[in-house]
## 1
Amino acid sequence: MSDAIREHCGVVGMMCRDEKIVSCLYWSLLTLNHRGHESYGVAVLSPDGHVSVEKGLGLISDLSLEEFHAWEKELRGRLGIGHVRYATSGQLSSKADLFADAQPVADEHLGKNLCIAFNGNVTNLLQVSEELASGASKRSDAHVLLRVLLEEYVKNDDVTDVLRLICEKLDGAYAIVGLTESGELFAFKDPHGIRPLSYGFSDNVGIIGVASESPALAVNGIELSEELKPGELVLIGNDGSIERRIIKGMCEYFCAFEYAYFARPDSKFQGRYVYEARRELGRKLAQRYSEIARNVDVVVPVPQTAEDAAYGFHLETGKSVEPVIVRHRYLKHRAFIIPAEQRKLILLHKYNLLLDRVRGKKVALIDDSIVRGDTLGHIVRMLKGAGAREVHVFSTFPKISSPCFYGIDMATFQELIGFNRDEEEIARLLSADSVNYQLINDFCDAVGTNNLCLACITGSYPTPYAQKLAEEGRRLALEGKRAEGRLFEVMGGGRCRA
Ligand code: SF4
């Protein structure tokens, strides 16, 4: 991914044998940090039933040793949850806003307490928040979601019933982890199973956990884990009891983009490493576009998520892979400290080229996906400027022509280079000799499942409110009207923030 799309969020929930849960949460969040760079946080249930929350801005690796030791001292308990965040809802403008929106979030209502962390996006948030009692915090989707849960929890403290009820109210994607005041840890995946959430345990290490991706469990000694099913609840009692049940399961629509871009290569979905799927995606591209693939001299991956696919392309064609594009490692571009124009400038400067490797050559440039195309176009022009004879772009993900309303930050039609344009026009905009997208069938074959959300490719959304938003947004975009923000925040009566 060469575009400035950033990750969404990562969640973790764990129970361990001793009272050192905060250390387990810390390591899991480090492992999930690629999913959210803006803030991090942990919440731990103390032995006396009190939930304490600690948060910070930026990467969790920025936490100093002193701060970590303070956490260890303050947050003693066996159950806890954690979160890393990139905002796909709520305010982006200041550090104070980002800190206030950082998760986990805890609240009290009529004497009942809950604490949650959440990954995904509730598309009908505006409607849901309007139904809440006055005085409820509506800062971000996590605050609204927590309040919706709490308003049911005060009437009935059975978590299963509460989650069943909110499934009826919410449209969107949500993987939730939470702590109840009676000492339970719960994890729940939305009925379509759009966002990832894995569960596992290790008797040897004495730990039970759920996390957005399996390496966040493996880092704490849980080697075997499995993906939760759509609508599945995992309920872990303070005594270590485990209950798993499907509350409301529907046909699975797992986010296809996780395979192409978001997830770590060492994550496992449906028992298969993501890097294997990516390698296969590269193979499929080389097979599908065999004529162009045969004629290139060199295969160049856009770092870092296209490297496995480039290797697959090489396996199929025998063409050598050259790591021509070097990414500046220490470039930081946090949304809250850098104005938009500067951010663009930084993005254009984040790559350098090994020039003599491409001079006079025909290049197969492999990217995992093409969203806006700004940076990819810049790379193509850099390659041409370095003397590349031809540059053929290959995208392991099919053409993205519709927004995502489920937690990936590409939420308008106009920002997408693939909206209302054919491949020829896109190639021209990118200054490339050709643009070759993965076909949907090849994508499904490569990742080994058809149970995928492909809404950003097909325009067909698994949930009804998202479909409605998309149809209205598409109509406006075709009329040339620009949305002044993410469609789910600006359509249907104003921004989400109260
Ligand atoms: S619309 Fe695209 S990015 Fe969003 S959940 Fe579906 S597949 Fe993933």
## 2
Amino acid sequence: MIIDTDFHTHPFQQKRDYEGMRDFAESALAKGLKRIVFTEHAPIDPAFGFDSRHYLDGREYDIYLECAERCRAEYQGRLEIGIGIEADYHPRNMEHVARLRKNYPFDHVGGSLHLHAGFWAEKTAGLTGDARVAYALDRTLELVESGLFTGLNHLDFFRWKQEDYAPKRHEERFRAVFGAMVKQHMSLELNTSGINKSFASFLPCAEVWRWSFDYPLERTFGSDAHKPELVGLARAEAQALFP
Ligand SMILES: [Zn+2]
Ligand SMILES: [Zn+2]
């Protein structure tokens, strides 16, 4: 499979306007991509009272969708543009994600577990080592089984701030996630942004990515670019890991 699409990009993080989004489209073109999918962080359920510039707020969310449609029209015939979101798994956010999905015909809804985010702090307090990894994978399985997402983002991102990460000790849980993904027809992302994090690895890591080959899963490539120049990050290295 030739990687010609970047399925995971954040065109609203920097300029938060249409020009910023065009910068992403231009970068995708310059890098020879056929398609880019915009997947800005969807707002969290307002009931959380969570406020972060990392996420769109309710007002920006509407502007984001308008800009994405305008951009898709402007680049028609030159670059395919998919309109999606990155949405958070949290048990208290699921009705909200269901509403978002009902109200817009997204091309892609990437599901993410951001265990480092403030709204998980209460549940993860005191969790360390293998117990934290097991907790993360159990939540990931819930994410998959919710049926609300079309793809799974950065599967082992919980390794960030994880002092001891030994995937082999959790192989059974990873395999349960893959098995559930097959049933839900969810795609698995190879996310290259981890190379710029402290652990310096694609997500999932090589061992877990290899296990996934025992399952008939669709695969996507995602740079998780928060800046236009990062669109298509490490595509050649990622390509070597695709069947
Ligand atoms: Zn994410
Ligand atoms: Zn992202």
## 3
Amino acid sequence: MLAAQQRQDPNQLSILIEKNLEIPTIPVVAQRAIKEMANPDVNVSHLTRILAEDQGLTARVLKVANSPLYAQAREVKNLQQAAMIVGLNTLRGIVVSVANRMIYKRFGKVEHAMWEHSVAVAVAAHAIAVKKKLPHRDESFVAGLMHDVGKVVMNNGARDAFAQSVQLAAEEGLTSIEAEHQVFGFSHVDVGGLLLERWALSPRLGQAVFLHHDLELVSTVAEGNEDLVYATNLADKIAHTLQIGTLVPPKDEPEPIDLAEEESASYFDLDTTAMADLVVQVKELYEAQHQAMV
Ligand SMILES: [Fe+2]
Ligand SMILES: [Fe+2]
């Protein structure tokens, strides 16, 4: 996988991906709102007027703003309150999360499983960020939620080929990356990385999505951005351990693995007990949060 990633010229890879798949654009209202929030002199009334142009987006943003993970003492009833009560950083994360949910072309069994997995990884990445007092909690949630967005795009545009790659991975014991390379010639991290670039989200988020299976390349990211890559990698492993949103259940009961032996767990200095506590905590958070995210 690593060799394949290093070998392929990024431009050639983008051409190959776009020949086969349509990279969805970010909903235009979300894009304008994110741009407005990046403005240091952001005008909250202007921002809420932009968001209010898309009623579907607004309804979802308010639902997420009132979900257990973000809920404050008082209910958020409108966008103005959302900006004031949860704050602009969190609101930006919520808008991106909602935009990400809107790219699903259909929402059947496979898509539901993919979404559940994403939400589990998002709450796990957020929990790691809280536990380790990392500076980018909202971004951790978004990184978790979007880490496998490439799979959504592959499934949107090439459903049979994507199903074939999932089956191939299960039957041959391959990683999803290996199986996707065999079927598509590229993998979900290539597609996800391209989508994040097109959506002009932060390079830190793009790196976390692109490298979540590839810690060997973490030394290539800018200083200070490593945390998000490791948090996304570890969160993914926690969600797999909990078997939330598994696309094809393994034939045999998987061997219990000690997550503390993962490189990303050592990076955060999390031992066996700390990891076991985190897994329990993530399960509870997921149960509380997932309904609000659909
Ligand atoms: Fe992945
Ligand atoms: Fe994943």
## 4
Amino acid sequence: MPKPLTRSPQPAQQRAAGPAADGFRVLDAVIFGGSASGLWILRQLAAAGRFALLIETDRLGAGQTAACQGIIHGGLKYTLNGQLSASARAIRSMPAVWRACIDGVRAPALGRGVLRADHCHLWHSGRALGHLGMIGARRGLRVAPVPLTPEERPQVLDAVPGLVCRLDEQVVSPRRLVGALAAPVQNLLLRAAPDAVGVEHLADGGLMLVLDPARTEATGARPLLLRPRAVILAAGIGNAALRAKLGLNRPLMQVRSVQMLLARGDLPELNAHCVEGASALVTITSDRDSAGRTIWQIGGGLSEDGVDLAADALVRHGRQVVGAALGGRALSGTEWSAYRADKAEVTTPGGQRPDDAFALREGRIITAWPTKLALVPRLAERVLALAAPLFGDRPAAPVDCRALGWPLPALAPPPWEGSLQWTAAD
Ligand SMILES: Cc1cc2nc3c(=O)[nH]c(=O)nc-3n(C[C@H](O)[C@H](O)[C@H](O)COP(=O)(O)OP(=O)(O)OC[C@H]3O[C@@H](n4cnc5c(N)ncnc54)[C@H](O)[C@@H]3O)c2cc1C
């Protein structure tokens, strides 16, 4: 990796022609990563009257967000042992925050179009201690399970043994969420290959980002010299390489992988957790593919325990687990597949999931991981609080990426629209 340069900042009119012809632009912030975190932070900065720009290397929502199930957890899954854990404490206010954004009474306004479902269901596999956990889980949570009468159960859960509950955790479509976050700020977004962004460390402690259109497919774009007061890394797994590029050598990131199961076909809508003991055996969320088929995205313990299985082995095993959890449902006429995804987070001593969103400021650079999609609003609040002392009193100026010819990143497709191998159920 080339060593970052060091030089003194020059005002725009003193700079030479070529890439410097436009002079440098002072911005309140440059954000790396155009997915849930980066876009949410950008919207909140814009709402606070700050001028920022977001750089995405791929497509908007690529990475974990496109792969995710979109459940706005309220902490139940972290209290199944009957204790109010640190994770549950951190996340318990999130469903109300998201609800307010979805209803448009809190910024960023998202609209109900982002919703896959207004609530989830919760049922017990019938094996091991589960009901106790579900009841203990009500302690301290703002979203608690509401037991349903047999008549109130969704039909797909008719055959499951024991208690079925409704859980007021909303489920969002990650793709529609990303679209809704990006729509009002499109002129602040640009796509640039990693190589197209150079970093210079200035003698006064500032940073200059040099965006070279010749190193990306940005034909007709003008070179950009950006002098951000804050650099915000919200690039998920890409944060590690960005930190190295910016000269931050302290390792901060861990990656936990999962292998998710997919089913498609004539399936009913279902957004639900099946609990076994003190954890979620399977978590099923529903969407539609471009051919109009229902898609079941299946995660939970199955996706963690099955991470090292070959995809066809996970499919065979997963079909049985899901069928059994649904009370012996045949699931005939369906097709099955699997995909891998990596979760990028701050390191923890035992490599466990961190309890909360994480943001750290080192000089002008803020590194951020939400840990969960549900925690993105909390992450954005922390990032804005860390960045505020860097902004100063002098106003920055807006940059219009479209007027400067830089391309708008497209929306990433969901995993089931990719080139996956599908197996028909017998
Ligand atoms: C299978 C799965 C299921 C999940 N389900 C849930 C759930 O139901 N509920 C929940 O709360 N959480 C869930 N999560 C966690 C959630 O998806 C993540 O916490 C969240 O989406 C992270 O969003 P992000 O924007 O921080 O990162 P990402 O979504 O990973 O986005 C990072 C972005 O940065 C871009 N990028 C990378 N490198 C660079 C670079 N050098 N320069 C510029 N841009 C760059 C990428 O292209 C990408 O667009 C799930 C995660 C997985 C993997």
